[in-house]
Amino acid sequence: MYHIALCDDNKAYLKQLESIVQTYCAKHKIDAVLLPFFSSAQLMDKTESKILFDIYILDIEMPNFSGIDLVNSIHKLTDSANIIFLSSFAGYAVEACGMNIFRYVLKERAEQDLPPALDRLFQHLETAPDSRQYVIANHRKFIKLYQRNIMYIYKEQKNAVFVLRGGFTETERLPLQEVYEKLDNPDMLYLDRGQILNLSCVRKVVGDRIFLDDGLEIIASRQGTIELKEALNRRWRGTL
Fold first, then answer.
1. Are 209 and 185 in contact (CB under 8 A)?
2. How far is it between the farthest Cα atoms of the chain?
3. Which alpha helices (H) appear in 85-201, and where do they start and end?
4. Regarding the domain delimited by 2-127, which CATH topology (the fold level of the hierarchy) does it fall under?
5. Does domain 133-236 fall into CATH 1.20.1300.10?
6. Per-residue pLDDT tens for 9-60?
């Protein structure tokens, strides 16, 4: 599942943009959640809270914060953001292309030019080195999750609860040990308090508190934090 942020201060155009992307995703059977932002300040608040999305489609010229301001803030957190800029003017293209964005699309040609840009973007995401997936499949739902978006997993009665980037959750009726085996990912660590943690989401460890992306925090046992620090030490090639 992809999480796509759309941001434009023109409500009518934002609605049109949402329709274009929804139609594209439905046509290509892409499982995506769209989050439209009429205010760039709202999206900036999400970014400053370290809540990131898989894809950003942003107007360049907006009050409060421009699309360029937003991208500068996003790039402080990640260098792998997938960003498409929209503008009514071609004059921003040179500056935008120097910001490591994926595409630059003129707003008046969005219906024609945005779908091909999305074709290339989703092809890129499907073949990226961190495109490892996890599939939840049962009689009620079929969901494909990208493991890079799974922050941690915990047990709730008979369910495994997946906490995802952007504040989303999914559940699967499986024991955590079976989930861990399905993940088959060296970046996932099974902590001793019944939690599976994505090492790539860890920012720091203080005592028994583990601080993650998106401003999340979880608690581990003393033995769990020792194992986590050892795993992070191997991953970060440093000394904790």
1. no
2. 58
3. 93-97, 110-127, 176-183
4. Rossmann fold (3.40.50)
5. no
6. 999 999 999 999 999 999 999 989 999 999 999 999 988 887 888 899 999 8
